[in-house]
Give the backbone structure.
Amino acid sequence: MEQESTYNPVIRLDKVSMRYGREAEIFSDVNLALEKKSFTFLTGASGAGKSSLLKLIYMALSPTRGLVSLFGKDVTAMDRSDRQTLKRRIGVVSQDFALIPHLTVFENVTLPLRAAGLPVQKFTEDAKELLQWVGLGEKLDILPPTLSGGEVQRVAIARAVINKPDILIADEPTGNVDPAMGQKLLRLFTEMNRNGTTVIIATHDTSLVSGIDADMLRIRDKRLEKGSAL
């Protein structure tokens, strides 16, 4: 595989604009550069485009205009195979959680590891420990439709972090959990960041933002601003 030109910035957007169909642009001429090991909160009013911006970064959407680069590579010019290779390096917690309903909690969480071809015995204990830590140690064999909203969210978070991704992208990751669990998840994210993961979190949770010294970005009036609080 071709050597990466640089890790700095690990995420880069150049003059990116986004619209759905013929609707008005959600945001325009967005420029963003996040370095490896950075920790960033993304804020903004509901409907401002936070989720759409995150989807551009994890390649669920393509920009109307502009360039999106990950790990020094232009993803807008990549074929599907190369994109899939990059996606394995990104952990994603989306608002729809996207759990597979016929797989158990354990199977959902370990899906990235099994997709990478690792044998079950290599990750079973680590997965059980992670699920215990997020309060789901007794729910390994449960199917997602029987879980509460908060439990489903914690399964999605465990799945996103299980393979220690280079980038973690989380969209309102504490929206369905109580404040104590929210702070526990924040500790998980910060520990991953200390170990080298680039973290970007979209949130309305003021307690989450005030609990850590991190970079702040805000989408307002179709623009991305730096250094803005909630």
Observations:
- The beta strands are 11-18, 27-34, 39-44, 65-70, 73-74, 90-93, 167-171, 198-202, 215-220, 223-226.
- The longest strand covers residues 11-18.
- The radius of gyration is 17 Å.
